[in-house]
Amino acid sequence: MTLASVLDLAMIDNDVARELAIAQKVCIRPLVRRVEDRQTSTTETVAIPCGSTRDAVCPSCAHKAKVLRMQQCAEGWHRDHEPDQLELEPADELEDQADELEDQGDELAGGEGDRRVRSTRRRQDAPDLPRVPREDRTIGRPFSTPDGKTYRPSMFLTVTLGSYGKVTPTGAPVDPGSYDYRRAALDALHFPKLVDRLWQNLRRCAGYRVQYFAAVEPQRRLAPHLHAAIRGAIPRELLRGVVKASYVQIWWPAFDQPIYVDELPVWVGGDYCDPSTGELLPTWEEALDRLADNPDARPVHVVRFGSQIDLQGIIAPSADADRAVRYLTKYLTKAISDAHTGQDAAGPAYLAHVDRLHAELRYLPCSPGCSNWLRYGVQPENASPGLQPGHCDKPAHDRANLGCGGRRVLVSRQWSGKTLAAHKADRAAVVREALTSAGIVAPEVERMAADVHLPDGTPRFLWTDSRPDPNTYARVILASIAERQRWRAQYETAKTLHPVDNSFGNSTGPP
Q1: Of 130, 136, 158, 322, which Cα lies nearest the Cα of 211?
Q2: Among candidates 286, 287, 289, 268, which has minimal Cα distance to 277?
Q3: Residue 10, pLDDT score
Q4: Cα separation of 484 and 113, whole Å?
Q5: What are phi and psi of 76, to 5 degrees?
Q6: Which of 12, 50, 175, 432 is the most buried (most CB within 10 A)?
């Protein structure tokens, strides 16, 4: 049955419309808007893509987001020219602070702009980091072969966390009773800090402003690991040494023994108090002050990378570079808990592993403002009424994230010299140029744009929310499919008349 014949049906099942939308790369849960054209006195229903980045929510929008990230990764990886202006990045600022604090990480997290320094010495069990003069560049050095060819190699790095216990090929623990779920959960919660420290240390030791495109993904055992495209070639021995020497110490109040389990602290007069005695719980600042004054205090947790490190040299353009980009973005559309599914992860042991790790994360504090601090007798930072341990609203506690509640894609500021929105505009510009050259009005650009005005200067198009009933879902989806097919046909025709640069990716049809 053709799409045209489907559209002629008076009734169609919503599930069929949904499957058609997925096959045609059309959003399955669009925002529906009514648009009034004041020039023609007509009204049209418009479906706006939801823009989700998760397959479980909308496979079509997630695919588009993944392709856009692939473009961003490829465009910045083997860049051979510097950006117009080198700006100081956050990692550079941390590096400057590290020049004053030889120990990179022995700090107590205070309020905004406030730091309590615990020590200026590195841990004795961590190797020293070399210091080299840094060049003000972000691109890698070129190399020449005897036959006169010049190439500029880059690198692909994979690092992960250490072991918490033996696991089966599916990722489930061999012995769940001895598996260190607490450390696994804490490592996941603080993994972003360790990654930041890695880039900070690498820039100090590599001698230039290392640029990266990295993705945080789960291993089968659900521990986060990092795939990173690094611009420029760094000696392997140096890079391995930096990974081994990188660590983060968490100087927080102790949370190994819960104090309030059955009776929780109560909110009285702007503070949380003991439910029995009425005594005020120490504020976050007071708890840190006590920690700073204790000479015998130790960090509550130390995060390090594991011994498994994979390094590959990459030269572009090449098939290896293309494969590396696809591999780096492989799981971006999957939730942490759902990245490894199918027959390898469908057994009850694996699902129990997910549940057990999620249970461990429920009561661990994820940040200074986490409501779980009340369980351990400390008022969270910027405390407010209604907080309850075990019900922190931070995404790190969600079952889908399993501790990795932050950004899954980490891109240095001078990677490609563009924002993600600029990359999206580049893709749209390619399509627009092709259509315009063929005499076709570009879709989604001039059409119903908010900046189109009538002769009197007022907006031509008026957009309003629409709340369609479920019976209109199939009609809206099928109309979107037909519209996209029309645009795709116009774009393919335009390309045959005026070939365009298609280096921004291989997704079908207009962005």
Answers
A1: 136
A2: 268
A3: 43
A4: 50
A5: -95, -15
A6: 432
Residue 80 in tokens: 């051979």
Measured distance CA(2)–CA(8) in Å, rounded: 10
Q: What is the pLDDT of residue 253?
A: 96
**Residue with the two structure tokens 């919503």:** 14
Are residues 172 and 347 in contact, defined by beta-carbon separation less than 8 angstroms?
Answer: yes
Instruction: Map residue 435 onto helix, strand or coil.
Output: helix
Q: End-to-end CA distance of the chain, in Å?
A: 27
Q: Report the pLDDT value the prediction gives residue 118, as an integer from 0 to 100.
A: 58
**Helix spans in 122-174 (H):** none
Residue 258: closest CA among 375, 380, 374: 375
User: Distances from the Cα of 398 to the Cαs of 146, 365, 403, in angstroms?
Assistant: 56, 13, 7
Task: Name the amino acid, one letter, at 81.
Answer: H
- Residue 29, both tokens: 């849960």
Provide CB contacts within 8 A for 446, sequence distance 6+.
Answer: 452
Contact 391, 264 (CB under 8 A): no
Buried b (16+ CB within 10 A) or exposed e, 31-52: eeeebbeeeeeeeeebbebeeb
The vertex-497 CA angle with 496 and 499, nearest 5°, equals: 65
**102-136 burial string, b = 16+ CB within 10 Å, else e?**
ebbbbbbebeeeeeeebeeebbeebeebeeeebee
Distance in angstroms (rounded) separating the CA atoms of residues 12 and 20: 11
Helix 59-77 and helix 319-328, axial crossing angle in degrees, nearest 10 = 130
Contact 18, 4 (CB under 8 A): no
DSSP 347: S
Query: To 10 degrees, the CA torsion angle through 276, 282, 283, 289?
Result: -170
Q: Is 195 helix (H, G, I), strand (E, B) or coil?
A: helix
Q: Is the dihedral of CA 70, 71, 72, 76 positive or negative?
A: positive
Contact 191, 216 (CB under 8 A): yes
Taken in order 142, 145, 151, 153, the sign of the CA dihedral is negative
18 three-class SS: helix
Show the low-confidence residues of the chain (pLDDT under 50). 1-10, 96-105, 107, 111-113, 120, 444-445, 504-510
